[in-house]
Write a structure and sequence with these properties.
alpha/beta, six-stranded mixed beta sheet, 10 helices, DUF429 domain-containing protein
Length: 294
């Protein structure tokens, strides 16, 4: 695919604010879609409390073939720092897709894409920081291990958390691990960038960080969360989008999804974002990348 053709490749831009919380249905899951042109993005099933299984069903059965889908989760674990996801473990996977299969295999009996069996696994729990002050001997100390894309996020002013960290309000570990189970179950229904490259046709899923979209819309990293129609419409205007048509207070998950869908529509045209300087074939295959991190 030529560098200038990325934007014309897609006609539907879907953002998914994801959640790793326990249970079936979550106010923290929100989906929004923007279409080619400049119409305001719209929530998908507004007011609906999504389950993770319903998101999988949507991606399997309702995804347009020209869709670019951004999911707010980490699509893999750190690999480049030690040349392995789980260094020293004899069964450590060699690629992101093998990692997804491993996680789903270990956790296959857990409903709602739960991941307790993985983080409590006798060989793997040592790599995670878990609740109750249980920091595994191989967690890495400090903030833990990071992927190359998370170093790029930090340079942009973001404050990413390690996907091995499962503690704290801002932790992303459980949501990322549950998302990896979904990606495995999705199989070949969609390509996952950059793990699968960027094929010339078919829907593509990428990892997003909603803070990057909010920053592109004029917010700061520390003020990335929006909770009113006024804040939302200001951000949409900065991205060249008409107002949302909504009013009053809104939850930040809805705002995140709508703003990120509008941002994806503009960002997909930028060839730099598809070719980050540090994204090697090896990192693409193992750690993946966050679309928009440069």
């Amino acid at each position: 695919m030529t560098a200038g053709s990325h934007g014309n490749r897609f006609g539907h831009f879907i953002a998914i604010d994801w959640s790793g919380a326990a249970g079936e249905r979550h106010k923290g899951i929100a989906l929004a879609m923007a279409t080619r042109g400049n119409a305001a993005p719209r929530s998908i099933r507004p007011g609906h409390r999504w389950s993770r299984n319903e998101v999988l069903d949507y991606l399997r059965n309702e995804l347009p073939d020209d869709a670019l889908v951004g999911m707010d989760l980490g699509i893999s674990l750190p690999f480049a720092d030690h040349g392995a996801f789980f260094p020293g473990w004899r069964d450590t996977p060699a690629s992101a897709r093998e990692l997804w299969a491993l996680i789903d295999g270990i956790c296959g009996d857990e409903p709602h894409f739960g991941v307790s069996a993985l983080v409590d696994h006798p060989d793997l729990c040592a790599f995670f920081r878990r609740h109750g002050g249980r920091e595994g001997a191989l967690f890495g100390g400090g903030q833990g291990r990071f992927r190359a894309t998370e170093a790029a996020q930090r340079r942009m002013g973001c404050k990413p958390y390690s996907n091995f960290n499962l503690v704290g309000a801002a932790q992303v570990g459980k949501s990322s691990l549950s998302g990896m189970r979904l990606l495995h179950r999705l199989a070949n229904r969609a390509s996952v960038w950059p793990v699968d490259g960027l094929p010339d046709e078919g829907p593509v899923i990428c990892e997003i960080y909603t803070t990057i979209a909010a920053m592109a819309a004029g917010r700061t990293a520390s003020r990335s969360k929006m909770r009113s129609a006024l804040e939302l419409d200001e951000a949409l205007a900065a991205l060249g989008s008409p107002p949302s048509g909504l009013a009053g207070p809104l939850d930040d998950h809805t705002c995140d999804a709508l703003v990120t869908a509008a941002w994806l529509r503009t960002a997909a045209h930028d060839p730099r974002l598809w070719h980050p300087r540090e994204l090697s074939d090896e990192i693409a295959r193992t750690e993946g990348w966050t679309f928009g991190a440069v």
